[in-house]
Specification:
- The chain has about 140 residues and is mainly beta.
- Strands 2, 4, 5, 6, 9, 10 and 11 form a seven-stranded mixed β-sheet that branches. Strands 1-3-8-7 form a four-stranded antiparallel β-sheet, with no helix packed on it.
- A hairpin with a 4-residue loop joins strand 7 and strand 8.
- The longest helix has 8 residues.
- The protein is globular, with a radius of gyration of 14 Å.
Length: about 140
């Protein structure tokens, strides 16, 4: 069972930066998917970014591309989301999530889930951390 704990949320002014962290309890397999999602009040959950550790490639939603960076520290089992140039549209509860591609699926499955394509969802989720941006 993977346990995920987010930290690093807070309140910043528009244009500011925050770095979110997601500490994972353990990983059973050497290749896995990890992603960041966010949900603002009254809105559907949105996939923000994902990384597939088997290939090291990443995915970003258009709304954050060029401003957010997803990365990981394997030695610390920790996922990060560096958020720069924060906008008034970015406030939400941010969640990290993890899973492994189902048998027969490649690493692209990691990104399809974050994009909302297909019926799958990541199985393991953190409790969320609040990000607030003031104008």
């Amino acid at each position: 069972q993977v346990q995920l704990v987010e930290s690093g949320g807070g309140s910043v002014q528009a244009g500011g930066s925050l770095r979110l962290s997601c500490a994972a309890s353990e990983y059973t397999y050497s290749t896995y998917c990890m992603g960041w999602f966010r949900q603002a009040p009254g809105k559907e959950r949105e996939g923000v970014a994902a990384i597939y550790t088997g290939g090291g490639s990443t995915y970003y939603a258009d709304s954050v591309k060029g401003r957010f960076t997803i990365s990981q520290d394997n030695a610390k089992n920790t996922l990060y989301l560096q958020m720069n140039s924060l906008k008034p549209a970015d406030p939400a509860v941010y969640y990290c999530a993890a899973d492994w591609p189902p048998l027969g699926y490649s690493g692209s499955w990691c990104y399809d889930v974050v994009k909302g394509l297909g019926p799958y969802e990541y199985r393991y989720w953190g409790q969320g951390t609040q990000v607030t941006v003031s104008s």
